TrEMBL record:
Protein's name in the database: Putative 7-deoxyloganetic acid glucosyltransferase
Name of a matching Pfam family: UDPGT
Family as reported in the entry's similarity comment: Belongs to the UDP-glycosyltransferase family.
Keyword entries, A-Z: Glycosyltransferase, Transferase
EC number: 2.4.1.323
Name of the encoding gene: 11408593
PANTHER family linked to this entry: GLUCOSYL/GLUCURONOSYL TRANSFERASES, GLYCOSYLTRANSFERASE
Source organism per UniProt: Medicago truncatula (Barrel medic)
A GO molecular function held by the record: UDP-glucosyltransferase activity
Length: 475
């Protein structure tokens, strides 16, 4: 008697991002892409973050209606609302508490939702390694940083061994790093991830970063939000250690391209942690082609009064129109924001609290982006072919800005020098004097990004392979 082959149950993927803006943005894009493929998704947020998503995104309910197989779940992050460290400079406290105490909560969700695969933000290290083994399910790590930065993290023990680390004071900052395979002689000490610095701006420890990075080796597969043509030489090094590597970026571009054909009205999905001010879109409509410099330093970067003032004067002196995002939590000093707003209005620039950045960058009036080079912002700029001026703050931003300026030739890097004259000159170089050169390389790389997410492109194909992998390994 013939036996019927056992029907495979539909996979159910648990996606758990680090509770920070850039991480939630990119992992939610992946969730949507998988939901479009009819895969069940449980997207896990901390309560603190979920409350922000509900508060600042009217259409989060519409997202769920659009994808019946997508659901949100929340867990505690073990910090009270009153004394919460937030999602900025003290995010390390939240990562630590989730890493220490989060396992039982994850276990409950794996059991109650019958999870068949976990896509975990790799920043959590081995948070889910034992659980995946216990339940016999697949564990995929996703790192939301650039591949060049991930690879630098991975090589930290080697750099220590070869005495290229630690950095020995300010006078050592221009020393060239030679022992990172695939990027020999590209980085100076000042381009290494900020945790390597002597006077670092955060509390994150280098050995902790190195350990968590290594723990991704225990996952069954690995995802990076990049594309082959952008980071080829680094990716070939990473593949030696992570053979099951899926490069599926730029994820927002893959998603938008996919949605254009199936859901044309719901372009640009939203996961803002701040209230969006859309007035800038009408303002941009009234500006000439490629005439505006867009300025934003992401969701967490704090800025000192002196830095804000230098950037502001540099922008004003450049005589270019600017659209500047100054988040509600970015300027501590009373009166400074209204001083800037008033002075800016006179010059006909615009300061706003939070914008729909993907839409802004794709607006025809934008000519350049003064950015902190968070990886999402960098990729969004790459996709739109917008040249950059870089003012990196921490983590992967130092290395991203080096690649933007010296490898991809997409702009100029202010790194470590915040001076009004430098800002003014760089704005003029990028938008006037060397405009053609930067626009040409930006357009060339934007074309490669589009090719990668189109049918037959590397990220498109890798995403198909990822789906196949998730389906074939589901019990
Ligand atoms: N962003 C936005 N509106 C803003 C500023 C930023 O929507 O006014 C989004 C931006 O599009 C990006 C994310 O916030 O997707 C920031 O992530 P990134 O990795 O660039 O920097 P982070 O905030 O993690 O430092």
């Amino acid at each position: 008697m013939e036996t019927q082959p056992k029907e495979k149950s539909s996979p159910h993927v648990l996606i758990f991002p680090c509770p920070a803006q850039g991480h939630v943005n990119s992992m939610l894009k992946l969730a949507e892409l998988l939901a479009i493929q009819n895969i069940y998704i449980t997207f896990l947020n901390t309560k603190y973050i979920h409350n922000r998503l509900i508060q600042f995104n009217d259409d989060i309910q519409a997202l769920l209606e659009c994808y019946p197989k997508l659901q949100f779940k929340t867990i505690s992050d073990f910090h009270s609302e009153e004394k919460h460290p937030g999602f900025g400079e003290r995010i390390g406290d939240v990562i630590t508490s989730l890493s220490l105490y989060g396992k039982p909560l994850l276990k409950d969700i794996i059991v109650s939702e019958k999870i068949s695969c976990i896509i975990l933000d790799g920043i959590f290290g081995d948070l889910a390694t034992d659980l995946a083994a216990e339940f016999g399910i697949q564990l995929i790590h996703f790192r939301t940083i650039s591949s060049c930065c991930f690879w630098a993290y991975f090589c930290v023990p080697k750099l220590l061994e070869c005495n290229e680390l630690p950095i020995r004071g300010d006078e050592d900052m221009d020393r060239i790093i030679t022992n990172i395979p695939g990027m020999e002689n590209i980085l100076r000490c000042r381009d290494l991830p900020s945790f390597c610095r002597e006077n670092k701006k955060d509390h994150i420890r280098l050995d902790d970063v190195a350990l968590r990075t290594k723990q991704s080796l225990k996952a069954n597969a690995f995802i990076l939000n990049t594309f082959e043509d952008l980071e080829a030489s680094v990716l070939s090094q990473i593949r030696i250690h992570f053979p099951k590597l899926y490069t599926i970026g730029p994820l927002h571009h893959l998603l938008n391209t996919t949605k254009k054909s199936s859901f044309p009205s719901s372009f640009f999905s939203k996961s803002n942690f701040f209230k969006v001010d859309r007035t800038c879109m009408a303002w941009l409509d009234s500006q000439p082609l490629k005439s505006v410099i867009y300025v934003s330093f992401g969701s967490t970067t704090p800025m000192k009064r002196e830095e804000i003032i230098e950037i502001w004067h540099g922008l004003l002196n450049s005589k270019k129109q600017f659209l500047w995002v100054i988040r509600p939590n970015m300027v501590q000093e009373k009166g400074l924001l209204s001083e800037l707003e008033e002075g800016t209005r006179k010059e006909k620039g615009l300061i706003v609290g939070w914008v729909p950045q993907e839409e802004v960058l794709s607006h025809k009036a934008i000519g350049a982006f003064l950015t902190h080079n968070g990886w999402n912002s960098t990729l969004e700029s790459v996709v739109c072919g917008v040249p950059m001026i870089c003012w990196p703050y921490f983590a992967d931003q130092q290395i991203n800005s080096r690649f933007v300026s010296d490898v991809w030739k997409l702009g100029l890097d202010m790194k470590d020098v915040c001076d009004r004259k430098v800002v003014e000159n760089m704005v003029n170089d990028v938008m006037v004097n060397r405009k053609e050169e930067f626009v040409r390389s930006a357009m060339d790389i934007a074309k490669l990004a589009s090719k990668s997410v189109s049918p037959g492109g590397s990220s498109y194909n890798n995403f198909q392979d990822l789906i196949q992998y998730i389906r074939s390994t589901s019990p």
